[in-house]
Amino acid sequence: MSTVVKPIQRRLIKLVPSGQRLTLTQWTARQTDRWSSRNARRQAVARQHPLQERERLLTGIIACFDSAGCEYFRIPDHRYNHTQLGVLPENHDTFVSSVLPALRTAELRVTRWPCENGQAWSISLPKSNHRCIVALWNSNGEAMVSPVQNSLAVKRSEGPLLVQGEERDFSWLYDDAADGRKYPTFPSLIAPDTFSIRFPIDVVYTWVDGSDPDWNDRKNRALEKLGRSPSKLSSNDSRFANRDELKYSMRSLFAFAPWVRHVYLVTDDQVPSWLDESSSRITVVSHREIFRDVGVDHSFNSQAIETRLHHIPGLSEQFLYFNDDVLLARPTSPSKFFTATGMTHFFPSPARINGMPVNDHDIPVDQAAKNNRRILMDRFGSVNRQKMKHTPHALNKEVLREIEAEYPDRLRETATQPFRHPSDISLTSSLHHYWAYLTQRATPGHARLFYAGLEQASTPTRLREFLKGASYDFLCLNDADSDGIAPDLLHEVCQSFFERFLPEPSPVEKRND
Predict the structure, then answer these.
(1) What confidence score (pLDDT) does residue 73 get?
(2) I want to staple 428 with a disulfide (CB 3.0 to 4.6 A). Which of 27, 152, 306, 489 is the partner?
(3) How far from the centroid of its chain's Cα atoms is residue 280's Cα?
(4) Is 481 strand, coil or helix?
(5) Could you tell me which of 419, 244, 249 has the C-alpha nearest to residue 323?
(6) Global pTM value
(7) 3-state DSSP helix/strand/coil percent for the chain, to nearest 5?
(8) Which tens digits make up the pLDDT trace of 420-448?
(9) CB of 170 within 8 A of CB of 83?
(10) What is the rounded (10 degree) CA torsion for 337, 343, 344, 349?
């Protein structure tokens, strides 16, 4: 499915002055929604929270089992939108005579599940992509055998010893802070798997609100003290604009990766108005706290801030770093970012780093990549040729500490630059990945990224195509340089998309009770 503006639209857009192109495409997209009720309904369908969807389905099914007095047991399934329940032979008749009729009258869709040896049923909610497979297990004389494949085994040989398993025993899509229900199962079914990730994973966000008068005063004083003008892309308003991307990124995190242990939000003494600071799921960290060792109180340089993230007190050894404009686009397992042994996955971009030395014509991200190159050549005799995609970054504190120990002056130089500088390195979004890879602690991964620049005329149309169900892992709605475009228009582009994609509040938002 194409997510680009059609050729004829592209040619027409080029006839419009560049400053008005985004206005035209956003207006056209609004008219398309208004004129086509079918398309508007299709795009307005809210994405269902996968955990809530599973809870609703399991609650309805288990109620039917309990009312019929029929025993069941739960089976792990590695697919986020599948659940499995098993029924032993002594309960087959009760299931067929009592549970099945109850399921069919409980507004659940019940269909036979194809299997060669035995019987199984697929049960789902209307208009839902989550299903529960109920399988009638049989005895082959030596062991109990499932008629359908499951994530661990099809046979169970131990006696009728049931234990209570937690949600994390059955699926990687679990929420430790919210999940309280336990399910009967057998020990062999929930024994720890070799490839399962058992270590805690935290998330770090960096965020700024460029509309804050106090913050702007600090920024202007820092510019005056600097005595020079940093590059436009280091200090323009777009770099610090706040359009509530963080709120929706956190919604995507808690909906699609609820296994995250804790969230840390790094800010320059700022707190989003919608954030519930009393939530046990999040901690706001001031620049002062992580920059104390280098004598910095405030930083306007994201590359400097990134050199200090591993100094956050209490942060897990393996963690994820999100820019506030990066979102998860669908349910995502920890194995997307880490292996069970703690190795990290990184996602190289097809974009290349040119071989020329650092110069004033380079954009800041390229300058940092070239400075990384010097370190990698010095340490490993290796050249980094590819940039990294705008995705969440999986990081290992051991690697970050090691780089800091070997190149303390380079990290300190970047950390003390108030704005992006040609001498900066990009520690978390590039250097860490190459260093970890060359020391056998990281490996390239695969990720489908939907990337859109807010200043691009095609963005409103592409975002509407995204809402129709394109399969991406991550989404980045970047604003590198939208100065000159009406802020209200940019806000509308963001809000109209975000509210359709992620309408459900996250656990760290204030409640409007």
Answers:
(1) 95
(2) 306
(3) 20
(4) coil
(5) 249
(6) 0.88
(7) 40, 20, 45
(8) 999 999 999 999 999 999 999 999 999 99
(9) yes
(10) -110
Residue 201 pLDDT exceeds 70:
yes
CA atoms within 13 A on the CB side of 296: 23
| Three-class DSSP labels, 440-459 | CCEEECCCCEEEEECCCCCH
β-bridge pairing 201-206 and 263-267: parallel
Q: Which residue has the tokens 């920059």?
A: 291
Tokens coding 224:
């005056």
* Residues 299/305, Cβ–Cβ less than 8 Å: yes
Can you tell me the distance from the alpha carbon of 189 to that of 351, in angstroms, rounded to the nearest whole number?
44
Q: What is the pLDDT of residue 46?
A: 39
The upper half-sphere exposure of residue 464, i.e. CA atoms within 13 Å in the direction of its Cβ, equals 20
d(CA 411, CA 377): 17
Which residues have a Cβ under 8 Å from the Cβ of 511 and sit 6 or more positions away? Answer: 276, 505
DSSP state of 241: -
Helix runs in 363-429, H state only: 364-380, 397-406, 408-415
79's tokens: 């697919």
Q: Quote the pLDDT of residue 8.
A: 47
Query: Are the beta carbons of 455 and 23 closer than 8 angstroms?
Result: no
Query: How many whole angstroms separate alpha carbon 138 and alpha carbon 277?
Result: 52
What are the strands, taking DSSP E only, across 235-370? Answer: 263-267, 282-286, 318-323, 326-328, 344-346, 348-352
Q: Two tokens at 307? A: 């050199």
Report residue 238 as tokens. 């777009």
Per the prediction, the chain carries an average pLDDT of 86
Separation between Cα atoms, residue 327 and residue 249, nearest integer Å? 5
Angle at 127 between CA 124 and CA 131, to 5 degrees: 25
The two tokens of residue 402 are 């090691």
Q: How far is CA 290 from CA 192, 267, 308, 368, in A?
A: 37, 10, 6, 21
Q: What angle do CA 255, 259, 264 make, to 5 degrees?
A: 85
Tokens of 154: 């099809």
| Interatomic CA distance for residues 99 and 95, integer angstroms | 5
